[in-house]
UniProtKB/TrEMBL annotation:
Gene3D superfamilies linked: HUPs
Domain of life: Bacteria
SUPFAM superfamilies from the UniProt entry: Adenine nucleotide alpha hydrolases-like
InterPro entries: Rossmann-like_a/b/a_fold, UspA
Every UspA domain range: 21-167
Protein name stated in the entry: Universal stress protein
Regions annotated as coiled coil: none
Pfam families: Usp
């Protein structure tokens, strides 16, 4: 089960939610065009957009008797509350990017491995597809992919749903 954003649900999310859902992976300091492209696809399909932020600085290490997931930071020196600060930053970035875009959206949060977290959110919402940004340009993006592997590649090989990879660079 994902950790739902403590931020208020945006006023654009109807009740009940849209029938068709697209999950888009979001991150701190992500290019806004990733969310905008996913929102464009969602608008053309009449779908809602679930923005999924996977906090990879934390992991699930078990569950309590009531099923509540037990979560701990990977780095014990990580400041308490830093995840909440990052979540609020992600929420603000999405809200800014989607201001004026007529697509219902919401932010969901989970922890752990990014590909697994996106899969978890997509399953929870029975999403039609998962949209993610391509690797970041430059040497650091290449190194991240070499060390951690391609999230897009992992999703493509493990999903029964469509995976949309939004290019890493965009000429505008």
């Amino acid at each position: 089960m994902t950790e739902s954003s403590n931020s208020p649900t945006p006023p654009t999310w109807p009740s009940p939610g849209p029938d068709t859902i697209i999950v888009v992976g979001v991150d701190v300091d992500q290019r806004p065009d990733v969310v905008l492209e996913a929102a464009g696809v969602a608008a053309r399909m009449g779908a809602g957009l679930v923005c999924a932020w996977v906090d990879s600085t934390q992991v699930v290490y078990g569950a309590s008797l009531d099923g509540t997931r037990l979560i701990t930071p990977l780095d014990p020196d990580l400041a308490t509350g830093s995840s909440e600060v990052l979540k609020e930053q992600v929420h603000r970035q999405i809200a800014d990017a989607l201001a004026g875009v007529n697509v219902p959206w919401r932010l969901e949060q989970t922890v752990g491995d990014i590909a697994s977290g996106l899969t978890e959110v997509a399953q929870q919402w029975d999403a039609l597809m998962i949209a993610i940004g391509g690797r970041r340009p430059g040497f650091s993006g290449w190194m991240n992919e070499v060390i951690g592997g391609s999230i897009a590649g992992h999703l493509v090989h493990t999903q029964h749903r469509a995976v949309l990879v939004i290019p890493g660079t965009k000429d505008r």
